[in-house]
Design brief:
Elements (H helix, E strand, L loop, with lengths): L2 H17 L9 E4 L8 E4 L1 H7 L3 H15 L4 E7 L2 E6 L1 H11 L14 E5 L11 H19 L3 E8 L4 H13 L5 H4 L3 H25 L4 H7 L1 H15 L2 H25 L5 E4 H4 L4 H9 L4 E2 L5 E4 L7 E5 L7 H16 L3 E7 L3 H13 L8 E6 L2 E2 L15 H19 L7 H21 L7 E2 L2 H4 L7 H17 L14 H11 L1 H11 L3 H20 L8 H24 L9
Parallel strand pairs: 5-6, 5-11, 6-7, 11-12, 13-14
Antiparallel strand pairs: 1-2, 2-4, 3-4, 8-9, 9-10
The structure holds one RNA strand of 77 nucleotides.
Length: 591
RNA sequence: GGUUCGGUAGCUCAGCUGGAUAGAGCAUCAGCCUUCUAAGCUGAGGGUCAUUGGUUCGAAUCCAAUCCGAAUCACCA
């Protein structure tokens, strides 16, 4: 049980025996005591003043005395300042906590709860390489999956690949027109970048044709519709849907190039999936559900044959679910895929990691599912995250301001290399170990940077600040870990010893922080927010670094103090490691 | 225009189930390596928590209005 819970229960019991009333944890608050006051936790009593008809000081005095006399093993002293009851936790309690948990590498994790969750994330288009925004998505999805696992869920990571549609045909047409048979191999280009280049070439050619048509007197809209390259692309989409062999062959060839590129990137950044869905297989799903909806009168058919749902009573609009030609739209497929996921895996919850520009779409999806009375409707959850922007504004592929995922990862790793070499601490490492270390640090910096802010907020990616490896960063936490490991390599054995003198403030502060780890993991899962973990880990590392600077571990003033600090060091390293693991970040033994 | 989200230090962000003098990091300035890794530590300066009103013992936090910014409202995906 967490210490806050223990204090809550002790307070409830004491209030009951003092005032003969029943209280719950909602009747008072427990906060961390501010550093300028003496104590560990503060019980805020103002809310009890009315019902007890006593002043906060009177309640505080009675409660403080009662707590101390009833549970001397938990509380060692109290004081009251301006109506706040500050209690100090007994050192014995902290030490017992430390001894019990310091070696437990599963500390903070919950037992399996029998619930199954699917986390869908990444969801790339196969017409261009991944960019910075995808990285936020990937790291978020991965981390949320890990956090849910730590909370006892069985987690399935899934990915829907958007591998068909007009955007894919654009790359294909451009390749046919401009490539002269070039391939990733022949040009020494990573497959996804190769295909992405043709997507750009399409847009260049398209723009040029529009300009030409406008010169001939067409309006902008007309020109956009009638540009030959666009007409060709639309024809290709029809051919694809008809399964025309040469189109399918080209499509498969180019997708294959992209997948090779993606695989390399995913491997590099440490992402994987338990199940990959391809839109080319799922885009027809959901049509049967539309029929069902028509029968249930949830949907209605217009004169032209198109099928709609009226969501205006819910404050939304009228939405199309089936085109007049009978083909499905985005939302139709998503309804179908949601059903397939549920049928196939019997999941209890379905989490979609998708950018906040699709908030409306996801709201509609859930609402339609609810109106259809689908059993999984309420278990659809959109984990919406904000866009990644540059200090100069939004990333725009057309203006060439997109930060490419492979580029930025490579840059972070190169920076890690540069720092490591400048510091010269690992000169005895082999080439292979060095490479691994640079990856660990560079990716650690990248992941931490993208995960340390609240997912739902948009974030500014500042290239200069992001390559800083000092302060509130991944390498800072990694460094703290490596320092501890360095000590532990020299001090391998721990003795059992129960003879500890009073805790020094810094010792207590570190233990105090470590104790919160389980609560933080629960909070992170509740909010689906890895930034809780990142902020917490930074705090733990910072506090430990203060202790490290002020107090010697190996040359502690006494044998007992040395043992105690070794316990603290071991537990800190364990918490840092398992916490960073929840963010998908590895820890170096040395750096 | 409707809906949704956001506005906290020069910059990037915490804090938001109401609690004591609003916190970090970066940047700036001043210190600390003959002793466990200085990717570190200690300290200083820096704030009208967008604005106004309300709720109350108490508001960055809750409510309302206003201002500013973003996303979205396709027979695109």
């Amino acid at each position: 049980m967490s210490i806050v819970k223990s204090i809550q229960q002790a307070t409830i019991r004491s209030l009951h025996s003092l005032f003969e009333n029943d209280f719950s944890e909602k009747d008072f608050q427990i906060n961390q005591t501010k550093p300028e006051f003496e104590g560990d936790y503060t019980i805020v009593l103002f809310s009890l003043v009315k019902s007890l008809k006593l002043s906060p000081d009177e309640i505080g005095n009675k409660l403080g005395t009662e707590l101390l006399s009833k549970q001397p093993e938990l509380f060692s002293s109290y004081n009251i300042i301006k109506g706040f009851l500050n209690v100090t936790i007994n050192d014995e309690y902290w030490i017992a906590f430390l001894q019990k948990n310091y070696h437990d590498i599963c500390f903070g994790k919950q037992a399996m709860n029998g619930k199954k969750v699917m986390v869908e994330y990444s969801s790339p288009n196969t017409n261009k390489p991944l960019h910075l925004g995808h990285l936020r998505n990937n790291f978020l999805g991965w981390s949320v999956a890990e956090i849910l696992k730590a909370n006892g869920y069985e987690v399935l990571k899934s990915c829907i690949v958007n591998d068909r549609g007009i955007h894919i045909c654009k790359s294909m047409i451009a390749w046919q027109l401009f490539a002269n048979g070039a391939t990733p191999q022949s040009t020494q280009t990573k497959g996804d970048h190769f295909v992405g280049d043709y997507y750009v070439k399409f847009n260049d050619a398209y723009k040029q044709q529009i300009a030409e048509l406008k010169n001939k007197g067409m309006s902008e809209a007309e020109a956009e519709k009638n540009a030959p390259i666009m007409l060709q692309t639309q024809q290709m989409l029809l051919d694809w849907e008809a399964g025309k062999p040469e189109v399918m062959e080209l499509w498969e060839k180019m997708n294959h190039w992209v997948y090779e590129g993606f695989e390399e990137t995913y491997k590099k950044i440490g992402c994987d999936f338990d199940k990959t869905y391809y839109e080319s297989n799922t885009y027809l799903l959901g049509k049967d559900i539309v029929q069902e909806g028509l029968q249930k009168n949830v949907f209605h058919k217009k004169d032209d044959g198109s099928v709609w749902i009226d969501l205006t009573p819910d404050g939304l609009d009228e939405k199309l679910v089936l085109r007049k030609d009978g083909t499905s739209v985005y939302i139709t497929q998503d309804i179908g895929l949601a059903k397939q996921k549920y049928d196939q895996y019997k999941i209890d919850q379905s989490i979609y990691v998708i950018g906040d520009e699709q908030n409306y779409h996801m709201k509609v999806l859930k609402l339609i599912a609810q109106k259809l009375g689908l059993p999984y409707a309420d278990d659809i959850y959109h984990l919406s995250y904000g866009m990644v922007e540059l200090p100069t504004g939004k990333m725009k592929s057309r203006e060439g301001t997109v930060v490419d995922a492979d580029d930025i990862v490579a840059e972070m790793i190169a920076t890690a290399k540069q720092h490591t070499e400048a510091l010269g601490k690992v000169k005895d490492f082999s080439e292979e170990d060095l490479k691994h270390l640079y990856n660990t640090i560079g990716l650690g910096a990248m992941k931490f940077y993208l995960l340390r802010v609240d997912p739902k907020k948009k974030m500014i990616f500042n290239p200069e600040e992001s390559i800083d490896f000092h302060g509130f960063t991944g390498p800072f936490v990694q460094y703290t870990y490596a320092r501890i490991k360095s000590i532990l390599r020299k001090e391998p054995t721990l003795e059992k010893n129960n003879n500890y003198s009073a805790l020094l403030p810094l010792e207590k502060e570190v233990i105090f922080n470590l104790e919160q780890f389980p609560s933080i993991i629960i909070e992170a899962a509740k909010e689906l927010n890895p930034s809780c973990i990142a902020n917490y880990l930074f705090n733990v590392a910072k506090t430990f670094n203060s202790l490290y600077a002020e107090l010697s571990i190996s040359n502690a003033e006494s044998h007992e103090k040395k043992q105690l600090r070794l316990y603290i060091a071991v537990m800190t390293s364990n918490v840092l490691q398992s916490g960073m693991q929840l963010l998908g970040i590895q820890m170096p033994e040395r750096m």
